[in-house]
């Protein structure tokens, strides 16, 4: 039986096992997919298990997407350019690190039928997933990307990867067409990002990477001020779908039943 894992810390909240195991069953594959909470010291060992074929594939989530890189043999172009890995597998005895968050975000935007071409984007946050979102936005030919993060240094580090990024201080809201919450504010339902909605709307796109809860205060208030909103559900499903396809060389379905698994 093949063995797959998602690793992170914390990991309890992860819905990846639910999705992957659903598709494993759909495709009649002899495999299991579990979640495992790790410490940084455990990364080397767990990745060596991939070389020894004790584990056939690993998904990586917060806070390890960058930290796993030194233990891998090769990175895909996407993983290398974002310095972020969320999918690991063995190919020709080499441990490959790939990034399916990029395609996940792009496919989610396509699914929402929103055209990002020439749009001005404001990203709140500079954590693990932001380099993938930036890479994806650039592929979709947005006109301007601005980052605002509480810890400015982390936004500046992203500028080493993407030279044309604009950075503003946390709390400073420049003009935008699309605003993306990539902070963890809102994971806890009561939390809220302080924004003056009266000065912002209407008719902007508010995108929240968070999908649980389904509607953060960020999205709730945006909607009440006449803006369009999307949560991170489809990005999550599409990144999982891409990883599944790479590992099993089979394309499972994404239908209402699959989408409901994540609600
Ligand atoms: P990591 O930073 O380990 O990759 P993450 O969940 O991907 O973790 O990122 C968390 C993001 O939410 C960061 O941008 C963080 O800002 P800092 O870089 O300043 O830590 C942001 N964040 C979390 N709580 C926040 C808060 N109360 N106010 C502002 N930003 C917050």
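Q: What amino acid sequence fits the structure above?
A:
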């Amino acid at each position: 039986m093949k063995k797959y894992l998602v690793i992170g810390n914390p990991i309890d909240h992860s819905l990846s096992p639910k999705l992957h195991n659903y598709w494993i069953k759909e495709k009649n594959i002899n495999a299991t997919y579990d979640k495992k909470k790790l410490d940084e010291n455990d990364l080397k060992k767990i990745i060596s298990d991939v070389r020894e074929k004790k584990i056939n594939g690993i998904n990586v989530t917060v806070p390890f997407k960058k930290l796993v890189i030194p233990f891998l043999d090769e990175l895909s172009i996407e993983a290398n350019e974002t310095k972020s890995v969320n999918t690991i597998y063995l190919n020709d005895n080499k441990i490959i690190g790939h990034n399916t968050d990029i395609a996940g975000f792009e496919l989610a935007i396509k699914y929402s039928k929103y055209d990002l071409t020439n749009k001005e984007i404001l990203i709140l946050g500079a954590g693990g997933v932001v380099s993938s979102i930036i890479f994806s936005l650039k592929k979709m030919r947005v006109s301007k990307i601005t980052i605002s993060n509480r810890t400015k240094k982390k936004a500046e580090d992203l500028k080493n990867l993407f030279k044309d990024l604009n950075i503003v201080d946390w709390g400073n809201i420049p003009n935008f067409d699309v605003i993306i919450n990539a902070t963890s504010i809102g994971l806890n339902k009561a939390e809220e990002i302080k924004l003056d909605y009266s000065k912002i709307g209407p008719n902007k796109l508010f995108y929240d990477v968070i999908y649980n809860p389904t509607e953060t205060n960020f999205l709730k208030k945006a909607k009440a001020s006449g803006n369009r909103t999307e949560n991170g559900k489809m990005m999550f499903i599409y990144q999982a779908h891409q990883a599944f396809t790479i590992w099993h060389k089979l394309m499972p379905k994404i239908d209402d039943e699959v989408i409901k698994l994540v609600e």
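Q: And what stands out in the fold?
A: The longest strand covers residues 2-8.
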